[in-house]
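Supplementary Note 3. Input sequence used for the single-chain structure prediction.
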Amino acid sequence: MSVEEPVYDPEQDAEAVRETRRGYHRTSAVWENIDGDAHIEKQKDISTDLVVQTLAEANKLFDTVHQINEATNDSSLLLQISEIGAAKARAMKSGTGAFDTDDFIARLITYMGGRRHAAHVQNEDDDDSEFDAGDAPLDWEKLGRKALAKSRRAPAMDFMLGPLSIEQKKRAAGKRAKLEKNKNDMKKPQEIREEDITRSANETTANVAMVERILAELEGDNHNVFKVIINPHDFGQSVENLFYLSFLIRDGKCAYFEDEETGEPVIMLCEPPTAKDYAEKLTKHQLVMELDMKVWKRAIEVFNITEPIIPQRPKAQMRIGDKWYG
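The predicted structure, written as discrete structure tokens, is reproduced below.
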């Protein structure tokens, strides 16, 4: 049984990554010197088969993409293909494809027997006076049978329930009555000055330091991520705890990995990397972690979390003037 490859694999084989990049370079070379608005004529000369062939090659290459840089190359190639396809679409000319409404109506009248009836009347009448073909009876049933042959909808009596049945509204004559406001009922908006706004200290910095201090006080080195951040009494603060923890991971003060024995996601405090470490090609890896209400409830159930490790924080409040806002 084959194991499905992960969509994102930072540990992908280096030779496979280089081969994928070479493939994108070869495929992108087809569009050299023909992209951009200055080369519209060259874009028109590209055959449709070449566009389809290049798109098929890009789809094959995408199966080997498991890192961000190669995904960027794939997006760039697809953008080039779409631009050239759009240029070819704009270059298409339908010629006589424009719809002539007058010619269509004239053909409908002829098909329903209107002009033949008009000619018959003129032959029988010796008077050469003007004749209006619009008065001739038209065989609408003949047109209806032709239309029903191409439609599975049941015929209805009122097809024209649309703009034709809408009566135009007429503006009422006379001026609108002005709304008179009582000046005694009008209130002046509250003026807020700079000194009225109480600014609290930077809560994010303080909470990040608090999370770091709690991790340092815990027993052991490795700690389950969910047991640390989950507050079983407050979903919002659980999300905030994950937000504060992300700053420690970003600064290199905390490491995130999966335990080899249990497979659980764990974190561990560590020494931040130095400039020398980055000079020796130490790289950072980004990770997106989803924490919605469903995951929050499931983590509480699986890891039997009854009390939060990070204490419950009071809700933040801001005072404007003499009133407090939560």
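The CA atoms of residues 232 and 300 lie 6 Å apart. Confidence is low (pLDDT under 50) at residues 124-133.
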